[in-house]
Every structure is written in C-alpha cells, then in structure tokens.
C-alpha cells in the first residue's frame, strides 16, 4: 500500500501537474519582486515602485472573469478542448506580454511597462483559474492530494527561476549599474521558460468530465463584450478621478483611494445593471453564474459568512504589505542583487517549502483552526525581525537568519490557509468559489501595500515593519472567535 501511494506521484497526471505548476508560478515574481528591483535600479522612487503592487489586483479581481473562462470557448483554440484551449491561449499571451515588457524602459516611460505588466498579470491570473479547474476535473478525489502537492512543488520551483534565477541573470550581465538591455535579456529568457507550459498543455489530454455550458455561443460573446466594456469603464473612471492629497497625507490619500475604488465598482455594476434591464443579457443567467456561488456560501454559513470573508481578506495582510518593500529594503540596506538572489530568492524558496510541509503536518495533527492561528502569529512576528534588521548593521548572517525565519513562517501560514479555504469551498461550486476566496484574499492587502513606499518615507523602515506586524493582531482575534462559532462545513 505504501509503494502504491508513492507510485501515485510518478503517474502522468501528477508529473504534468508539476509542469503546469511551473507554468503558473513563473510569472508571479516577474510581476512583483523582480520588477521592483528593475524599477528601483531604473531610478524610480520607492513610493511609485510600491504602487506597481496594484497590478496584483488582476489576481484579486479574477473572480469577475472566472465564469467567462468557465463558460466561453475561444475560437480557433476550441479544437484542443475547453480547458486545454484556454491554457494554450493564456500561455501564448503570457509569452507575448513578457516580450513586450522586455522591450520597455521604465527609466524613459512608465506607461508602456504599466500596460505590459498589467497584461502579464491578467493572463497569469487567468492561467491560474484554468489550471485549478483542469486539476479538479482531470482526476478523481483520491488523486487531488498528490496533484495539489506536485502543483505546489512546480509553482515553488518556478518562483525560484522567476525570482533568484532572473536576478542571477541580471547580476551576471552587470545590473549594478542600470542598463535596460540587461533587463531585456532577463524577461526574454523568462519568456522561453514558458515553453514548458505550452509543451505540457499539448502533451496533456482534455479532462474527461465535460462541463455542460449554460450559455449559448451568442451569449458567450455577449458576456465577454460586457466584461470588457465594464472593465474599460472601471479603468477609465479610476484614471479620470485624481487623488488630490499629497504623498505625506498617507491616511487621507488611502481613504480617498478606497472611495475611488468603491465608486468605480459601482460604475462597473451600473453598466451591467443597465444591460440586464435592456434585455441584452439574461438576469437569470447572470444570477446563476455570479450570484449562486455566493448565495450558496451565505446559506451554509449564515450570519458568520461576512466574518469569514473578512478573515480571508485580512489573513495575509501582514505578510503581503511587508513583502512589497522587501527587495527595495535589501537594496537600500546595501545588499547587492546577487546576494538578494541567493539568500532571499534561492534559500527563501526552500525555507518556504519547509514551512509549507510544517503547516500541512500541523493541520493534520492539531486541526485547521489552531494551525491557522499559529501561522498568522508567526507571520506577523517575523515582521518584527525586519524591524530589528533595519536598525542593525548590514550583515549577511543577519539577512540569512531573518529571511529564513520569515519564509518558514510564510510557508506555514500559506499551507494552513489553503487547507482552510479548501474546507470552506462547496463541491458544487469548487472552481468559482475558490476563485472568489483567492480574489478576496488579495484585495485589501494589495490596496494597502500600494502605499508602502509612502509609509516608509513618513515613518522609516523600522517603524514601518512594526506597523505591518500589528496589522496581524485583528486576524488573530478573528480566528479565535470563528474557531468557536463557525466550524468549517464541507
């Protein structure tokens, strides 16, 4: 029996999931940490660099277009099947986005790199939606554990390539003095690595479980048009409304941004409401696609549903808000790109994997809620180590110790959180609800993280890291309360 369990990890399906995990994990650090190093080296100020973390809203908003991915078949790609067609399309678009990014120079113009990186984030998050659905539909329940493990392993390996690998390449070609050609080479090489995903997609088979689409082909087109129109309206209005507050007025600037996003979402909703009332799209179909998964969750958890969603939205806030400033902090502390690649990205990935295994073991041994609490506690406390590093001398030993502790804590918290989210998800709406949870998980942290640079300008690195640690306190209180009143219902 033991050998049989081990052999599961060497089946075609699990090995393919390892490679698809690699394809999924490669773009993420190219959108965030590697990009922040490039922008900083190009002479962009830290407050502007951290605003680029808002590109991560593509991952936070992916729930909005997950039903389109679930129901719309892409012309010319549909011969591969529904899931494989979407996989190949998104992977090709990721490669194109990486190539376009490589041709930009942020030192001269930030507009073009903003467009290309936003495109990269949108297609990367869409690929994540497809792979999640592909994994769930392509194997029975007893294989989902091994498939998930191999996916995570591939994802972490890709983060090693996209994080440490990209910075090593930049260091090798001499990035200590800014040269746009160096970063062009970095992103072109990363585009080549995406061929792993394309080869795996072509090698794989379409899942045998065929989804019965609730939309006809003309309705597919209408839904896609509506989404593009609504998103364009959101972006136009957001850019049209300028923030009147100065950089030093952090709280006022943040609150104004929250109000601006709420207003833009309202405008997004008004467009959809208008098109429903004009009978352009069916109200019944919109309800079935977007609202039934939400209503199902509310029905199962009742009055505690909002509190659970609040926990999901805040759980990673201490980790994400601190992480946006990490690379800039390392550079300003005096560490070079090669050292950051080696100690932060290379050893950091292995520390995260160790933390992940520990988190999974604790969930099995002590239960999900206790592990969730411990993960939130150590993730917040690890930020205090950065506060200590900020006032200490620049020492490689100190750097290694802090990075190792932080990544183990992050891996532990991440594993416990995945187990918690999986327990919240209904079998009937697995893909859509998981996309919703992961969207909520990133929205508030990414919104706050966009102002990290301004925070540091105002209060300094040490105080900033202490504040990010304190952001985790409400999360701990929520976990204690929910563990008593809202146990997980599968």
Q: Explain this structure to me?
A:
- The protein has 490 residues and is mostly helical.
- It folds into three domains: 9-213, MFS general substrate transporter like domains (Growth Hormone, Chain: A, Up-down Bundle), CATH 1.20.1250; 214-281, no CATH class; 293-490, MFS general substrate transporter like domains (Growth Hormone, Chain: A, Up-down Bundle).
- Helix content is 80%, strand content 0%.
- The protein has 22 helices and no strands.
- The two termini are 28 Å apart.
- The model is unreliable at 1-6 (pLDDT under 50).
Q: How many domains comprise the coordinates?
A: 3
According to DSSP, the number of beta strands is: 0
The overall average pLDDT, rounded, is 80
Backbone shape: globular
CATH architecture of the largest domain: Up-down Bundle
- Main pleated sheet: none
List the SSEs and their pairings.
Elements: H1 2-8, H2 12-31, H3 33-41, H4 46-51, H5 57-60, H6 66-71, H7 82-102, H8 110-138, H9 141-172, H10 180-193, H11 195-203, H12 217-240, H13 250-277, H14 283-301, H15 305-314, H16 317-333, H17 337-366, H18 368-391, H19 396-424, H20 430-449, H21 452-470, H22 473-485
Helix pairs in contact: 2-8, 2-9, 2-11, 3-16, 7-8, 7-10, 7-11, 9-10, 9-17, 12-13, 15-20, 15-22, 16-18, 16-20, 16-21, 17-18, 17-19, 18-19, 18-21, 18-22
